[in-house]
Amino acid sequence: MKNRRHRDGGNGKKDIVPVNERIRAPKVQLIDQNGVNQGVLPRDTALNMAIDANLDLVLIAEKGADGVPVVKIMDHGKALYEKKKKLAEAKKHQKVIQIKELKFRPKIGQHDFETKMKRGIEFLQAGKHLKITLMFRGREMATKNERARELFERIHKVFQEQDILKDLIQEKDSRAGQFWSRIYHLK
Known about the structure:
By secondary structure, this protein is α+β, with helices and mostly antiparallel strands. Helices cover 33% and strands 26% of the residues.
């Protein structure tokens, strides 16, 4: 059987708001185009008022205070356009957090350690989050706790030498099998 994509983006959820004749309730609470509450009216009367104003009758809430659906007279196409623009504007102002990861083994050489830490400090100073992952294999798992503490102490010593330890925020550790991770970022 073919997987068909629908107009709703393919996720199966529909964001279609009932408009005009698609509103099935016999009585509705009407808010006119000026924002004035007209009270509870028959749906046909509300629909005729929307047609006379050359606008749409849009369902705002399934149940209002009286248990009656709330509808509003508005230009539905314009409202959808404005909503889309607001979402795009909000997305534009979102801050995306970038996480850079450094992976260490317990038997890492001194020069390799220094090079990775230098890059890690550059990432932190550029405003990115830094994830440091320690990887253990085979027999290294037997001494995982001691070796991990030693490596993290070396890492903290480098942060202290670079004078960024006071501004550094450490999130909680993540231990999963052969990995031990910590995420750091600057205030």
